[in-house]
TrEMBL record:
The active site is at H126 (proton acceptor). This is Acetyltransferase. PANTHER family: ACETYLTRANSFERASE (PTHR43300), UDP-N-ACETYLBACILLOSAMINE N-ACETYLTRANSFERASE (PTHR43300:SF7). It comes from Christiangramia fulva. GO terms for molecular function: acyltransferase activity.
Length: 204
């Protein structure tokens, strides 16, 4: 397997891959100062030889994952990587490149897009829909029928009540309690959640 990225998030993915008894062939990071991670050599460019291996992006930043996929340097992304201590319902859909960390719970009829991160001990309840490139941070609770748009980031410990829609590339701050729909690009903090500003669109 090929891992793109060699920072903290990649360390967690390496640990999951080890626990699943899968092999890591290459780790690549554009930062020339990063030479090693978890006893693996870090390379700095994706070669043609690497492209035949399935890949996962070990980078937590949603915009960076989006740009890597859009560049089409990588041809073959891995099936979802799920920590053995996560609880994942059988009847759900999850896209390629997504990662589920230890202690996370994903309940029936949820739909998880491509290249999503379901982080440590987060809860994704029944019929939640996460579009591509969403990051659900540790300890987050997404209650039933929540929809989260492309690229949105849900901060650690946030709670989103049933039926809420969070717009694309929005940010929900750590510990926020979201009781109203969140527009695209909005930044919401506090309890109850309130909009404090809007993110810039970085993907055009």
């Amino acid at each position: 397997m090929l891992i793109i990225g060699a920072s903290g998030h990649a360390r967690v993915i390496i640990d999951i891959i080890h626990k699943l008894n899968l092999s890591i062939k290459y780790i690549v990071d554009a930062d020339p100062d990063i030479m090693e991670i978890e006893n693996y050599e870090v390379l700095h460019k994706v070669s043609d030889a690497m492209k035949k291996h399935t890949a996962v992006i070990g980078i937590g930043n949603n915009h960076t994952r989006y740009k890597i996929v859009r560049e089409k340097t990588i041809e073959n992304f891995a099936k979802p990587i799920v920590h053995p201590d996560a609880v994942v319902a059988e009847n759900l859909k999850m896209g390629e490149g997504s990662v589920v960390m230890a202690g996370a719970v994903i309940n029936p009829a949820a739909v998880i897009g491509k290249h999503c991160i379901i982080n440590t001990s987060s809860i994704v309840e029944h019929e939640v829909v996460l579009e591509d490139f969403v990051h659900v941070s540790p300890g987050t609770v997404l209650t039933g029928n929540v929809k989260v748009g492309e690229g949105a980031h849900i901060g650690a410990g946030a709670v989103i009540i049933p039926g809420i829609t969070v717009g694309k590339w929005a940010t929900v701050g750590a510990g926020a309690v979201v009781i109203d729909d969140v527009p695209d690009f909005a930044v919401v903090v506090g309890n109850p959640g309130r909009i404090i500003k809007y993110n810039k669109c970085e993907n055009e």
